Fold these 2 entries.
Entry 1:
Amino acid sequence: DAKTTQPPSMDCAEGRAANLPCNHSTISGNEYVYWYRQIHSQGPQYIIHGLKNNETNEMASLIITEDRKSSTLILPHATLRDTAVYYCIVRVGLNTGTASKLTFGTGTRLQVTL
Amino acid sequence: DAGVIQSPRHEVTEMGQEVTLRCKPISGHDYLFWYRQTMMRGLELLIYFNNNVPIDDSGMPEDRFSAKMPNASFSTLKIQPSEPRDSAVYFCASSPTDQPQHFGDGTRLSIL
């Protein structure tokens, strides 16, 4: 699976959009971008994933550049409860008939402040 | 819906003792994963099962670690004998085929 690079930490004011970047310049054509987050003392939580089109769900939006070498996770209105470590993971995706082996890096520690 | 359930939430024991961690996956999920998280090494995959069969145990650190899945609703991770360097948070996760994984809240293990 392709390696990802994320900033170690970011701050965001409550109510503002949090934009978390991820570089994955060696991504292959069949690899998806996944985002998980881990709130203190909890297990990782799935947020969103995508292949090449932008995706949106009730939690966040995922913007993937046209060359797929980077992506941005957007939390449109961050709250204090969004304070967590956010992991960007690239892996071979769906319809492979095999389980997803997730390789977690160090992630971005997002601190949402008042 | 009930999520992945792990027990115990916390375990403190002395070096040399046997430790058993338990996991109940989400009903209908055919994949089960065991991870370990430490400050030094982050979150690492130890082993995963498909339909109760171990598929990849390359992440298991050594023979002191063993994992079983006797049925679709239960799995154990056992450490015997335990050592202080095994202290970590152990997570269990489950997923349907080709779908995102759902994690439990982990077992915080301290070996004295």
Note: DSSP finds no helices and eleven strands in chain B.
Entry 2:
Amino acid sequence: DIQMTQSPSFLSASVGDRVTINCKASQNINRYLNWYQQKLGEAPKLLIYNANSLQTGIPSRFSGSGSGTDFTLTISSLQPEDVATYFCLQHNSWPFTFGSGTKLEIK
Amino acid sequence: EVQLVESGGGLVQPGRSLKLSCLASGFTFSNYGMNWIRQAPGKGLEWVASISSSSSYIYYADTVKGRFTISRDNAKNTLYLQMTSLRSEDTALYYCARPKFLTTVAPFAYWGQGTLVTVSS
């Protein structure tokens, strides 16, 4: 199985900061990497698919990059509404596997 | 508008069975593969199972293989998850999810609100 190592597990940043979250795959997953945002009590929301494609309706301050084994989610200017837990997911091969999550808070 | 509504969760004793349903609307259900994903209380996300649009291809996580069965009824726009031999570690909020594209089961673009399964004596 492909292991997804996500870091950091917790992140505290100020409004307006640039924030980066990383996911590392245990083997090559090409660009089959997605990023999800989950706010408290809500279902996950797709932010980025296929490593760098912005999902419809998602603000442009969110972006994704990477290929192969190393991927990054970037929030260019952190907003209060971005408080959430963020997960990566690989769907290059079965079984699909999620990262362990990054809890993002406002400092 | 795409809507996915899960049902069938509840409190069940270890070793017993439960069947979850996910009623889909707002899109042509028979055209899309579908998925179940779960989340234990306060924990991360775990992919559980996927099924292709015509049920030709089915995949399971190792943690549920042999105990859970994913199926669908395209005439009823409904996805199912039959769970047997339930264990305490199956306690979770179970989500159904639709992919963004017709041709694959991922990425998961649309999610229901989930149905809670609690396995306890």
Note: The longest strand of chain A covers residues 19-25.
